[in-house]
């Protein structure tokens, strides 16, 4: 341990700690901008490029960046001298001199770390305004807009994309004043191997990277009298939406959200969790089929579109192992425009399906040509949790004051298994709850598979089914997924089933969720919320959902049967 004094407070910290870490342990705030410490992911953005966190170290002439300066025995640090404050303000003024001043109409207005810092440091004029770097906006993709005029070169996106996700799409190109974070050759995003996971957007401190905003499309649909507009909400939305209205992360707002969606004017308010149960019926049946008929193993879950795009690009020699199941919200779209349309006497052409998702890749996924029926998309528009909050604010709907309401039926009822899709490990846990009972003909008494929960990058469990040990693995974050897939390709792993979610933490940490600004405690609380909702459910196994049973009886026939296959399964492309 090393003894350090910061602003006259003493503390002993581990050798190798930085001044910033020691200050944090003492509850002393040092402002930062480029710094990002995602400890759940064991990932730190180490570039120390912004120099906002400079502090004075006794005996040293120069100011030191707190995030990149290791402590030493007897070190004496002061964080709040006028020299530090002036230096921070100067650095910020220089950054602002090359930054657009359109804060009032910026996508990140009131959610921008640069804006907050300018307020905190009391910057009231932009000194040294000179030439500004100009870059064309990249609006080529369905998911992400790149506006590099707003980039401050903090390189968080590069760390996220290259180190955590191992996709290597974004890095600095050109030099000096022309430096820009971009795909190689400055290609438009839609021409790259970007998975649209949106994790770069999630950590961008400004509006350099934002989502494609589909809110106007949804308003148009809601005010189009010909359209019957249906909405579905992903499992992870209900534990995060409240944050946009001042609630603690993890607060369950399921009932308030259903009420709010009705106030917005949706004709039917449904739940993607219902479709998650449907996915389990298909995925568990596919898994059982592969196990019993010597099919290809391990089976890989396929509900995360960023993960699907990742394996299509990076593991195109292994396209026969992922499950062929469409993702739950896509299954929902098909069922809405077939079964539900028939039941309600609606013309599918007039049905407009909106998905509220924690995810940016779902926007891209909804436009995939494989996910259409007669050229009509299964899902018409995807908005994120943040965009739903935006709509509610536009309509003056104060979420937290609403009385709880129920989802509509028949596509609104779900089991606890459907809910846990929202957290890493949840999909495979949900599948096990069903596959176990189908394969053994016994009741599964303990439905909680604790080994598959939590933030460990790769989790494993073995479940005994009919005397055979079934090996399960879970990975979240595409870097962890890559490690697992490489082991499988090299013949070093003998798993039977694997769940992969592209975003760290699973969908609760999706790129469309309220910004966590690097506070990993927020993800932990959202995860807790997910498992609480599961515990509170009377039905916790997908195959026991009465509306799912009815759907098969009335329309689909057998799980993994011919009709189900036609409507609910897909294929992958190189
Ligand atoms: Fe997800 Fe899924 S769990 S992918 O993480 O399988 O986005 O929440 O909606 O479709 O159900 C996201 C979440 C979501 C799908 C489901
Ligand atoms: Fe990389 Fe994901 Fe951002 Fe694409 S969306 S650039 S894969 S972090």
UniProtKB/TrEMBL annotation:
Keywords: 2Fe-2S, 4Fe-4S, Iron, Iron-sulfur, Metal-binding, Oxidoreductase, Repeat
The 4Fe-4S ferredoxin-type domain, residue ranges: 142-172, 185-214
InterPro entries the UniProt entry points to: 2Fe-2S_ferredoxin-like_sf, 2Fe-2S_ferredoxin-type, 4Fe4S_Fe-S-bd, 4Fe4S_Fe_S_CS, Cytosolic_Fe-S_CAF, Fe_hydrogenase, Fe_hydrogenase_lsu_C, Fe_hydrogenase_ssu
Domain 2Fe-2S ferredoxin-type, chain residue ranges per copy: 1-83
Pfam families: Fe_hyd_lg_C, Fe_hyd_SSU, Fer2_4, Fer4_7, NADH-G_4Fe-4S_3
UniProt GO MF annotations: 2 iron, 2 sulfur cluster binding; 4 iron, 4 sulfur cluster binding; ferredoxin hydrogenase activity; iron ion binding
Top-rank taxon, per record: Bacteria
Residue ranges of every copy of the 4Fe-4S His(Cys)3-ligated-type domain listed in the record: 83-122
TM ranges: none
SMART domains the UniProt entry points to: Fe_hyd_SSU, NADH-G_4Fe-4S_3
NCBIfam families assigned to the protein according to its UniProt record, in alphabetical order: FeFe_hydrog_A, FeFe_hydrog_A6
Name of the protein in its database record: NADH-quinone oxidoreductase subunit G
Organism whose genome encodes this protein: Anaerobium acetethylicum
């Amino acid at each position: 341990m090393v003894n350090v004094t910061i602003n006259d407070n003493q503390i002993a910290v581990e050798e190798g700690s930085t001044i910033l870490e020691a200050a944090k342990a003492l509850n002393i705030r040092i402002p930062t901008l480029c710094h990002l410490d995602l400890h759940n992911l064991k990932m730190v953005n180490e570039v120390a490029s912004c120099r906002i966190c400079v502090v004075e170290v006794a005996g040293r002439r120069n100011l030191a960046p707190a995030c990149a300066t290791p402590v030493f025995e007897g070190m004496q640090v002061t964080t709040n001298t006028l020299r530090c404050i002036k230096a921070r303000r100067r650095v910020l003024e220089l950054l602002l001199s090359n930054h657009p001043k359109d804060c009032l109409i910026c996508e990140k207005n009131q959610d921008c770390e640069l804006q907050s810092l300018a307020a905190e440091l009391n910057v009231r004029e932009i000194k040294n305004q000179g030439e500004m770097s100009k870059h064309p906006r990249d609006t080529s993709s369905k998911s992400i807009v790149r506006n590099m005029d707003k980039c401050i070169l903090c390189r968080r996106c590069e760390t996220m994309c290259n180190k955590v996700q191992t996709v290597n799409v974004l890095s600095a190109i050109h030099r000096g004043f022309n430096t820009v974070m971009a795909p190689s050759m400055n290609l438009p995003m839609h021409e790259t191997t970007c998975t649209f996971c949106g994790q770069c957007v999630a950590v961008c401190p400004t509006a350099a990277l934002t989502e494609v905003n589909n809110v106007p499309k949804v308003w148009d649909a809601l005010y189009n009298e010909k359209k019957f507009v249906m909405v579905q909400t992903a499992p992870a939305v209900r534990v995060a939406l409240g944050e946009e209205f001042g609630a603690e992360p993890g607060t369950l707002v399921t009932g308030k959200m259903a009420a709010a969606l009705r106030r917005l004017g949706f004709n039917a308010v449904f739940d993607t969790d219902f479709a998650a149960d449907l996915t389990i019926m298909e995925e568990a049946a596919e898994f059982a089929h592969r196990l019993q008929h010597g099919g290809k193993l391990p089976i890989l879950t396929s509900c995360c579109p960023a993960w699907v795009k990742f394996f299509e690009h990076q593991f195109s020699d292994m396209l026969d192992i992922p499950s062929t199941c469409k993702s739950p919200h896509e299954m929902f779209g098909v069922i809405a425009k077939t079964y539900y349309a028939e039941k309600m006497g609606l013309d599918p052409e007039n049905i407009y399906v909106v998905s509220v998702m924690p995810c940016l890749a779902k926007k891209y996924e909804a436009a995939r040509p494989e996910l259409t029926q007669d050229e009509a998309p299964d899902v018409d528009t995807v908005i994120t949790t943040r965009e739903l909050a935006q709509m509610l604010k536009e309509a003056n709907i104060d979420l937290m004051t609403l009385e709880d309401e129920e989802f509509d039926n028949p596509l609104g009822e779900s089991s606890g298994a459907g809910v846990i899709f929202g957290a890493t490990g949840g999909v495979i846990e949900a599948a096990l709850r069903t596959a176990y009972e189908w394969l053994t003909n016994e009741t599964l008494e303990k439905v909680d598979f604790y080994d598959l929960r939590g933030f460990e990058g790769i989790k494993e469990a073995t479940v005994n089914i009919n005397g055979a040990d079934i090996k399960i693995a879970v990975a979240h974050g595409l870097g962890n997924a890559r490690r697992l897939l490489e082991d499988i390709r090299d013949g070093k792993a003998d798993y039977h089933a694997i769940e992969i979610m592209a975003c760290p933490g699973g969908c609760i940490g999706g790129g469309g969720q309220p910004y966590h600004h690097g506070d990993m405690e927020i993800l932990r609380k959202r995860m807790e919320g997910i498992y609480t909702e599961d515990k509170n459910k009377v039905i916790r196994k997908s195959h026991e959902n009465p509306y799912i049973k009815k759907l098969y009886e009335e329309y689909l026939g057998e799980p993994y049967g011919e009709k189900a296959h036609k409507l609910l399964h897909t294929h992958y492309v190189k």
